[in-house]
């Protein structure tokens, strides 16, 4: 899902939906289900900031700027695809809207008590459409159309005020390999001061193959954990893991104005992007390198030895990172130095590639499989409604990865 030279698709739908009764003390019970906010100590961070003044670019399938939980927060964006599903169609902006809600949802209704609360509810969302939903009828067309959407989107976001760039997408197929244009775009964004966050991949049960853009130098790559802090079985384990965040049974918003529970390192990346927005709001002069360092040094539940491929440095803790940031002095951005192996922080795409599964880059293969970093909706609808929602068999197959006949 990184540029049309690869398979840029994403699955976000729902299967076997059932309704959940409202919880006492909440307008509709949705916010009562958001366990991740407490796990990340987000409300503690809100005592300092809720992300005001920060813009988070969401490079995804588009964002529904009319969703009540995002009303007034979505900036005019960019569509780098130009075809596919449009507003009002079921295959439009589902994944991107879910990610935007995790990052910056502000709820709605009386005192914002209904709907989804994001990690940084005062942050702005800058939508950049670079991929199609997996259920989009034009998905096959994307395979043979112009390339470079992701690289162009990263540069566009960096040039249009993004403080944080969220990449809840990736390619971890057998033919996945680093793209020079994407790598250069990431470094361009970092030099301009934008923090780049990406999902580590959902290949934990399928070979743990390297995923791009997560493996590019300087990217904050995020693995997923459940509500007990354990690595999600699907979460990819690789050297580039930076931190972890919730990615199981996560509450998400949808353009259909319903709410679902989903899973994936996509969601985990969005939680970290929201966390970065809080840190940047509190410490706007810190560099991407410094913010990355804050997140790793202050992560909670650190694995033995301080780091692992499963969890990175541990579970992100924006409140602790904000406090630790008080002691830092801003540093200048590192200049580009193409000849230097240490021009950026973090290991490069060539670091032990293939050591885990024996697969290396295949530059001849242009059509890669879905990275598995898509947020996949699980079995529960959290929306107040009149009854279960029936979902076509084809849509269910896209969620589960099953093949249809």
UniProtKB/TrEMBL annotation:
Keywords: Cell membrane, Hydrolase, Membrane, Protease, Serine protease, Signal, Transmembrane, Transmembrane helix. Residues 51-314 form the Peptidase S8/S53 domain. It is a single-pass membrane protein. The active site is at 60 (charge relay system), 95 (charge relay system), 266 (charge relay system). Residues 1-22 form the signal peptide. Pfam families: Peptidase_S8 (PF00082). InterPro entries: Peptidase_S8/S53_dom, Peptidase_S8/S53_dom_sf, Peptidase_S8_Asp-AS, Peptidase_S8_subtilisin-like, Peptidase_S8_subtilisin-rel, T7SS_pept_S8A_mycosin. One of its GO terms (molecular function) is peptidase activity. Its main location: membrane. The chain crosses the membrane at residues 364-383. Residues 324-360 are annotated as: Disordered. GO terms for biological process: proteolysis. It comes from the Bacteria. It is found in: Cell membrane. Belongs to the peptidase S8 family. PANTHER family: CEREVISIN-RELATED, PEPTIDASE S8. This is Type VII secretion-associated serine protease mycosin. It comes from Streptomyces rugosispiralis. The gene is mycP.
